[in-house]
Amino acid sequence: MRYLKLALISVFVLFALLTAISLLIPSTIVISRSVTIKRNPAAILPLVNNLRNWPSWIHDHDTTPVAMKATQAGMSPRLMIGQTMVQLISADSAEVKTTWRTNKGRSMDASFYVLPREDGSSMLQWRFIQKLRWYPWEKFSSVATEKVLGPYMEHKLNQLKLVAENAT
Predict the structure, then answer these.
(1) What is the pLDDT of residues 89-108, one digit of tens each?
(2) pTM to 2 decimals?
(3) Which of 52, 78, 95, 167 is a plausible cystine mate for 69, CB 3.0–4.6 Å?
(4) How far apart are CA 36 and CA 165, in angstroms?
(5) CA-to-CA distance for 25 and 146, rounded, in angstroms?
(6) Structural domain tally of the chain?
(7) Which residues of 47-79 are buried (b: 16+ CB within 10 A; e: fewer)?
(8) CATH number of residue 56's parent domain
(9) Domain limits at 145?
(10) Is residue 16 part of a domain?
(11) How far is CA 34 from CA 57, 75, 88, in A?
(12) At what angle do helices 41-49 and 145-166 cross, to 10 degrees?
């Protein structure tokens, strides 16, 4: 009985310690990547502000299925990328906002910013914002999010750059 009591107290103290440490990790994670494209913003915006154009640059042939989802009246367009649903929230001449929802129900907000440069090219910035709950396992797993999502974003931005610069 003494060992069981010690084990239960140890588990509780360990959980409390991990929870206290996890509170030092920010509850909002921002991951951002950018690319310079040798086209003006007007040539780039249609590729990001219309989800129907996304398969031309977001699709990895034979690895990630990409499909438009049927939308109901009054709902914004949705795109399925693998097991993740992307929904367009708003789009204007400088910013495109989307929400990415996984099949597990977690969501992240993403924005694209298209900024003109003096030499006639544009800088396209893609930013993900993830809001975390207080759960220690969620906070600790967010440390790896940048290492997983960052290279994905760089790869997709480079594909978008190729599509935009090769468009006539």
Answers:
(1) 998 888 999 999 988 888 89
(2) 0.80
(3) 78
(4) 10
(5) 14
(6) 1
(7) bbbebeebeebbbeeeeeebeeeeeeeeeebbb
(8) 3.30.530.20
(9) 27-166
(10) no
(11) 15, 29, 20
(12) 120
